[in-house]
């Protein structure tokens, strides 16, 4: 029992798996599904509004001065990951169904996380202001870059992005975020002060999207198309992808002459992928019948990255404690 408590098992992931199970057993259908879809869109808009209200514009501007670090994180997030995703999906066409292969590629096109990137950077003793700026900028720019990369790299797989989809991204995700930024001066402190309560909005929105996506996938017969072997291969690919990025970002940061603190920031910000941004984007960019299998690799990668990066952050922290004082 004590071992389970020490393991960094994400309770939110357990809730996500519960939503998947509920959708598999009791999917929402018909007119109820249409009404639930509208409620989900409103919840997503609230989620991005709160993100905008939390983020201080001053913090972003102050962090922008460390451009070499941000450029390295940006390259890992939007260049290295897509390159690895393209190579992996090209090498494993017979091992994964096309929908899961699309999910792996979509995972590689997502922006970095904010909360976990900053949290692990802090635990490991990295450059926290730079982590805040890099992770935040990745999420903001990702609202533009991810849909464009989907259109560029996934069009051959049927995931191309149209002007209508781009408009939906702007209306559903960016507009609420900008509204939150405009009101941040007046409501930002209150939002941060009630962060624990407002986290229910964040998590509730994601749970609603997951439940709706897997309900639609259940109605479309998703589980009959996926074998246990395909799921096992997908998990192995997620693990391989994370391991490759962690190794490459570590070696690259040392080769480029970054300090230990900056190396930590690059490793943790450059290796993450955002479930919070990915699920709503998938809901906007892909047909309903595909969303369940598209976000499945993202959900599993989310838990894998939390577990592995928690262990890695502790290792960095122990090395810093045992290092002789400078």
UniProtKB/TrEMBL annotation:
Gene3D superfamilies: 1.20.1530.20
Pfam families the UniProt entry points to: SBF_like (PF13593)
Membrane-crossing segments per the record: 12-29, 35-55, 67-88, 94-114, 126-153, 165-183, 204-223, 229-252, 289-313
Keywords: Membrane, Transmembrane, Transmembrane helix
Signal keyword on record: no
Top-level taxon: Bacteria
Name of the molecule in the record: Bile acid:sodium symporter
């Amino acid at each position: 029992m004590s071992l389970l408590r020490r393991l960094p098992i994400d309770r939110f992931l357990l809730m996500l798996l519960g939503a998947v199970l509920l959708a598999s057993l009791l999917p929402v259908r018909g007119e109820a599904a249409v009404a639930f879809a509208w409620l989900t869109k409103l919840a997503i808009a609230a989620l991005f509004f709160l993100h905008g209200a939390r983020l201080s514009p001053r913090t972003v501007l102050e962090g922008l001065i460390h451009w070499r670090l941000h450029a390295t994180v940006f390259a890992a997030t939007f260049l290295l990951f897509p390159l690895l995703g393209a190579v992996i999906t090209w090498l494993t066409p017979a091992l994964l169904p096309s929908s899961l292969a699309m999910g792996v590629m979509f995972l590689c096109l997502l922006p970095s996380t904010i909360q976990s990137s900053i949290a692990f950077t802090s635990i490991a003793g990295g450059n926290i202001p730079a982590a805040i700026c890099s992770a935040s900028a990745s999420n903001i720019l990702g609202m533009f870059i991810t849909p464009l990369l989907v259109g560029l790299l996934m069009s051959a797989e049927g995931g191309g992005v149209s002007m209508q989809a781009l408009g939906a991204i702007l209306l559903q995700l960016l507009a609420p975020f900008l509204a939150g930024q405009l009101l941040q001066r007046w409501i930002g402190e209150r939002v941060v002060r009630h962060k624990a309560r407002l986290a229910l909005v964040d998590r509730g929105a994601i749970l609603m999207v997951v439940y709706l996506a897997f309900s639609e996938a259940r109605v479309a017969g998703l589980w009959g198309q996926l074998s246990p072997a395909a799921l096992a291969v997908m998990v192995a690919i997620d693990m391989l992808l994370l391991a490759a990025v962690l190794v490459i970002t570590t070696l690259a940061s040392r080769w480029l002459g970054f300090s230990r603190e900056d190396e930590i920031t690059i490793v943790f910000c450059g290796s993450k992928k955002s479930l919070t941004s990915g699920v709503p984007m998938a809901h906007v960019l892909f047909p309903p019948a595909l969303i369940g299998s598209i976000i499945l690799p993202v959900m599993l990668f989310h838990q894998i990255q939390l577990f592995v990066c928690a262990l890695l952050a502790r290792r960095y922290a122990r090395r810093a404690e045992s290092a002789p004082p400078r």
